[in-house]
Write a structure and sequence with these properties.
Helix 9 runs parallel beside helix 10 and helix 11 crosses helix 12. The chain folds into 2 domains: 225 residues, Phosphoenolpyruvate-binding domains (TIM Barrel, Alpha-Beta Barrel), CATH 3.20.20; 55 residues, no CATH class. Helix content is 43%, strand content 16%. The strands form 2 sheets. The chain has an 8-stranded parallel β-barrel with strand order 1-2-3-4-5-6-7-8, surrounded by 5 helices. A two-stranded antiparallel sheet has the order 9-10. By secondary structure, it is of the alpha/beta class. It has 12 helices and 10 strands.
């Protein structure tokens, strides 16, 4: 499956047409139209009407995702509106088990566009933390899961563990989610930063998330996009290293070798795989940012 940048994942309330229109011209990698927390119960109907005017082509050059209500698309009106919009993926909140995702995929597959729509899963409950491996593993049962999204605010609420600067208490959970995701080659998106005006803290959280193996950041304001895009894009020195590793293994004298010495350091063929991913991601980011 081709690499797809998910550095900046911007949430937009589905009942705000002006915000949705603005999102069409933003530099985020992914637009998530939110039918859950960002939409008051009395505005749900208006949000569904807004979806009726949208499609996968509404956000050219960006991934289009819809976060459904916590009932997992059990509302027929919501399911109809989501399927009609034909998003790239449906983001399922409050996931507690692999069965939750299987249930949503069954509903999606009942529509004409079902096979084209993937799933993202919010990991934001204690049950999801304990079942992260099984949730990721539902891919082996045919569930089209592509991404795990960490819901830090809900985790703080349900576990009663405060979200303090540095998020030290959350690091073991973050690594647990990343490990589960990698068993199925899934991406992991970090949770939101509520203080959207604090650019320094945003950069710090993005750097932390990237160092822990995550692929992008959930965002709630357009002003956060540039920082996330910059932090999660392969740095020039990474691209230079990756290019050198790829070039070294293509030299005729190194054909068939499993281990090489480069600049005084040992590199193995496993490093070639990592290098190729860096090069592919850098190219994907460049293509997206040129649009």
């Amino acid at each position: 499956m081709p690499i797809r940048p998910r550095r900046s994942v911007l949430y937009v309330p589905a009942d705000k047409p002006r915000a949705i229109e603005k999102a069409r011209g933003l530099d985020c990698d992914t637009v998530v139209l939110d039918l859950e927390d960002a939409v008051a119960p009395e505005a749900k109907a208006a949000a569904r009407e807004t979806l009726a005017a949208l499609s996968r082509d509404s956000f050219p050059g960006r991934e289009f995702v819809i976060r459904v209500g916590s009932a997992g698309m059990s509302d027929p009106g919501e399911a109809e509106a989501v399927l009609a919009a034909r998003p790239d993926a449906v983001l399922v909140p409050k996931v507690r088990s692999a069965a939750d995702l299987q249930h949503v995929q069954e509903r999606i597959d009942g529509g004409s566009a079902g096979a084209e729509i993937a799933l993202w899963a919010m990991i934001e409950t204690p049950e999801a933390l304990l079942a992260a491996g099984a949730i990721a593993g539902c891919c082996m049962a045919g569930v089209r899961l592509r991404c795990l999204v960490i819901g830090t605010n809900d985790l703080a609420l349900e576990t009663r563990v405060p979200l303090e600067p540095g998020r030290a208490a959350y690091v073991p959970w973050f690594m647990q989610i990343v490990a589960a995701a990698r068993t199925q080659r899934l991406d992991v998106i970090d949770g939101v930063l509520n203080d959207f005006r604090d650019e320094a803290l945003l950069r710090s959280e993005c750097l932390q998330a990237r160092s822990l193996g995550m692929d992008g950041k959930s965002l709630i304001h357009p002003g956060q996009i540039a920082v996330a895009n910059a932090v999660f894009r392969p740095a020039p020195q990474e691209v230079a290293w990756a290019g050198a590793v790829a070039a070294a293994f293509t030299l005729p004298e190194n054909k068939g070798k499993g281990v090489l010495a480069m600049d005084g350091r040992m590199i193995e063929r496993l490093h070639l795989g990592a290098a190729q991913r860096i090069l592919d991601m850098a190219q994907a980011c460049e293509r997206k940012d040129r649009r």
